Each structure stands twice: as structure tokens, then as C-alpha cells.
Amino acid sequence: MDSFLGCFKSSKTIYDFTVKDFRRNDVSLSVFRGKVLMVVNVASYCGLTEINYKELNELYAKHKNQGFEILAFPCNQFLEQEPGSSEEIHKFACTKFKAEFPIFRKIEVNGKNADPLYKYLKNQKGRIFRAIDWNFAKFLVNKQGKVVERYAHTIAPHKIEKDIIKLLHS
């Protein structure tokens, strides 16, 4: 069984992926090499939107100068709570919530059209084939580009701060 599961694990890091920004320009995640990353699927019209953006902004402001980045990926797969275009979503998040961290193009996080980055993220930490269950699921990535933890949408960003600090100082 271990050899079977091993075929789904990867020696890749998050730095091996290229994603699209909200304008559809390629962004190599290698530009974030050496930083602690939180990767999160976001939505504009979810009951969790306001508190998550507020706490994400607070974490980002507090730790960005220490090497912390938040990478936000809009997703419309959960009750169509992210219906706009990538440009509209970016404008909304930056205007209404004053988001300063990168907000990438809208993607799918589950199913056959799931973005390769999210396929990789979900396959780490022994959660093979486990779907993202809702908006604002979070992955924490260390400075070496390896996924170290996955947090459910029910875990508020501020509750992850101690783990972020630990990684920033390692």
C-alpha cells in the first residue's frame, strides 16, 4: 500500500508551478522561493469572506516584511460564491477588503479541471484524493516550498499565526 500511495507523492515543490495572475500573465511560483506561504481559495460572496479577508490582511501586514506571503486563488465551485471575472474579483478584494497580497486568476480546485497547483497541494500531507470542502481552505508552505499543513475552512487565519511564526523562524 505504501508504494501505491508513494506514486501520488511528489518530490516537486510549490516552486515548480506556474500560475496565472488576474490579468492572465504567467507567474512562476519560484519568485516566492525562501518565503513562508499561505495558499488559500477565496470567494467574494461567502459568509466567511469578511472575517477571512480581515484576518488575512492582518497576518499579511504583520508578517510580510519577515518573508510571509499569501497567495489567493478565487474559486466559484462552492455555491457560485465567486461569480465575477478574475479582474472583477481582484478589484473587489482590493477595494472592499484592501487586500495587498497577490490574488491570482479564478481557478477550479476540485474535479477534472482542478488547477495543477491544487492537485499537488491536495496530494501532500497524506490526504490523497481529498477534495477541498469549501471556500477559504488554507495550505501552509515552508521556505523550502513543501506543504507542511492543510487547514479546513473552519480554521480562522489568526489561529494559524503561531504556525506561521514557527516557520518564519526556522
UniProtKB/TrEMBL annotation:
The keyword Heme does not apply. The active site is at C46. One of its GO terms (cellular component) is cytosol. Keywords: Oxidoreductase, Peroxidase. One of its GO terms (biological process) is response to oxidative stress. Belongs to the glutathione peroxidase family. Signal peptide: none annotated. It holds the Pfam family GSHPx. GO terms for molecular function: peroxidase activity. SUPFAM superfamilies: Thioredoxin-like. This is Glutathione peroxidase. Transmembrane segments: none annotated. InterPro entries: Glutathione_peroxidase (IPR000889), GPX_AS (IPR029759), GPX_CS (IPR029760), Thioredoxin-like_sf (IPR036249). Gene3D superfamilies: Glutaredoxin.
